[in-house]
Amino acid sequence: MDVETVGERASVWRIPVAVGRFAVAVLRTIATVAVILSFAYMTVAVLAGVLGRYVFNYSISWSEETARFAQIWFVMIGAGIAMRRGMHVAVDSLAQMLTLRLARALKILIALACLWFLGLVAYASMPLIELGWMFETSPVLLIPMWTIYLCLPIGMSYLALETVLAVIDSWDQPFGMRGNIPLEDLD
Prior knowledge:
This protein has helices at about 5-55, 60-85, 100-135, 145-150, 150-170.
């Protein structure tokens, strides 16, 4: 195989890779903005409820309900952002002692188990969304509950994407390994 053929193959993948990176960057920006907006709204709604109840002696009925819905979306989307930043709790002291090959295999196995669970949650949320579509509304504002339940498959899908990207991004150091890898395993 000559050098030109290898170079041509690499150039064929440049555009799809660039488009994929751009799409991931846009999705991450949307997720970050959604989390910021839902947290800000949740804060304002809770503050309005507290001020209304204790300062003005008037209960604002919608503040608690909408703050709860904002918190649900905040958590579901925020889990993906936490995955991207490596902020989920992990015990990796044993994994750091593994060779690079075994650490990669363990990382893939853990990711597959996580993807299975996330897929299960997303799949199991479909009847709930259907129920919310057909019958349920929120008690105070009469918001269709499917709009709230939709956070489950959306949040799990985003978390699954970030799980896959975390495996790819940490391929050279699967568990943040530091210098304890035998040289023969660096391939």
